[in-house]
Design a protein that fits this description.
46% of the residues lie in helices and 11% in strands. The protein has 16 helices and twelve strands. The longest helix has 28 residues. It starts with 30 loop residues before the first strand and ends with a helix. The chain binds D-xylulose and cobalt (II) ion. Cobalt (II) ion binds next to loops.
């Protein structure tokens, strides 16, 4: 029985269509820079928002109308939800999805029962994944919702919470492997602090690193060759999350000898909460060689929290795809819609509108980015701006043949530095607008 009987497979109808349930820009097999859009964008639906989001907020109850969901924590409900999710993924035409272990299956009365529940639901996911060819982009464990994680998981002062989290990630790696998942994400959850007076920061960070090393070791042991990601976020739920932004994550990974094992999964709303742009975070990761995947969404600049809205701003999606292309495109990563429909958008059809809008915005962003790159205006400008480093003194400095003394001699000889040229910010912004 169909959960979306009135909705057929969403197809590309072109920019002029008036059909709200069609793509205007996303054409899966259209070639851009020698690759299909499908392979460039690698779209993924976030199970937690789209199939577990209820619309509840601190002021009110659930609002979402989900006729297929009986609201219970039963295994039957969980398994049925998986079938509905795959009908949604299929109709939307996404190649991937992502989930937390606890999104898909209910917790039991102890860890053994919880693991059995998970296995039972994963069997249905496996069936549906094989039937449709829709694959897990990355798996992750929910190490933040249960009260046992009130003080964090890997950074908890309670070593039993650490042990439980280890067991949970072990299991989650196993199911991610079984489902052919291409990655595994660590988002900090409650790894951070509310108050430094009760916190041994050094010890917590050491534990977090130990935990991640255990995950890397276990992945090797079971033959999980997927990419590990760490997802920066500065605050919420804690006052300070240890993975606060791309630079903090990279520093942590280097300090604890993890940099070869994890890349970053960057999220727009987390970047803006950190006081950065998504472009900044992507450049920080890209230039360090750890740009892995993105959680596509957007925040509301007038609100100070993680609103996780669907991205529709072409300027933003252009920046995302320009930077992804600049750093060689997604390998194991993709565009995962870590976004939720508003509480007021409670009908099932809103889930379609939201994802169609996000996919179209990213498809357009990809095309705009490719056109900008084909013309090479921006690249060319940046290249020229650094031309003084290509020959003569600049090239010598880069080659390491100078020191303070030789540079002083050079400058004493010349008397003053050569003049600067304009940064042309306004002109560049105008040029970008000719493409968007
Ligand atoms: C929370 C967030 C998570 C991660 C997965 O802000 O983004 O949903 O993406 O745990
Ligand atoms: Co996220």
């Amino acid at each position: 029985m169909s959960a979306f009987p009135d909705i057929s497979k969403v197809t590309y109808e072109g920019p002029e269509t008036k059909n709200p349930l069609a793509f205007r820009h996303y054409q899966a097999d259209e070639i851009v820079e020698g690759k299909t859009m499908k392979d460039h964008l690698r779209f993924s639906v976030a199970y937690w928002h789209t199939f577990r989001g209820t619309g509840a907020d601190p002021f009110g109850q659930a609002t979402m109308i989900r006729p297929w969901d009986d609201g219970s924590d039963s295994l039957e409900n969980a398994k049925n939800r998986v079938r509905v999710a795959f009908e949604f993924f299929e109709k939307l035409g996404v190649p991937h999805f992502a989930f937390h272990d606890r999104d898909v299956a209910p917790e039991g009365k102890n860890l053994a029962e919880t693991n059995r529940n998970l296995d039972e639901v994963v069997r249905v996911i496996q069936e549906e994944s094989d039937r449709t060819g829709i694959r897990l982009l990355w798996g992750t464990a929910c190490l933040f919702a249960n009260p046992r994680y009130v003080h964090g998981a890997a950074t908890s002062p309670n070593s039993d919470a650490f042990a439980y989290a280890a067991a949970q990630v072990k299991k989650c790696l196993e199911i991610t492997l079984a489902l052919g998942g291409q990655g595994y994400t660590f988002w900090g959850g409650r790894e951070g602090y509310q108050n430094l007076w009760n916190t041994d920061m050094k010890r917590e960070l050491d534990h977090l690193a130990q935990f991640l090393h255990m995950a890397v070791d276990y992945a090797k042991e079971i033959g999980f060759a997927g990419q590990f990601y760490i997802e920066p976020k500065p605050k919420e739920p804690t006052k300070h999350q240890y993975d606060s932004d791309a630079a903090a994550c990279i520093n942590f990974l280097r300090q604890y000898d993890l940099i070869d094992h994890l890349k970053l999964n960057l999220e727009t709303n987390h970047a803006t909460l950190a006081g950065h742009t998504m472009q900044h975070e992507m450049e920080v990761a890209g230039s360090a060689g750890v740009l892995g995947s993105i959680d596509a969404n957007t925040g509301d600049m007038l609100l100070g929290w993680d609103t996780d809205q669907f991205p529709t701003d072409i300027y933003l999606t252009t920046i995302c795809m320009y930077t992804i292309l600049k750093y060689g495109g997604f390998k194991t990563g993709g565009v995962n819609f870590d976004a939720k429909v508003r509480r007021e958008s409670f009908e099932p059809v809103d889930l379609f509108y939201a994802h169609i809008g996000g996919m179209d915005a990213f498809a357009r962003g990809l095309k705009v980015a490719a056109a900008m790159r084909a013309d090479g205006v921006i690249d060319g400008f940046v290249r020229d701006r650094y031309a003084s480093w290509d020959t003569g003194l600049g090239a010598e400095i880069e080659a390491g043949t100078h020191d303070f003394k030789s540079l002083e001699r050079y400058m004493l000889d010349r008397g003053d530095a050569a003049g600067n040229t304009s940064g042309r910010q306004e002109w560049l912004e105008n040029v970008i607008n000719t493409y968007v």
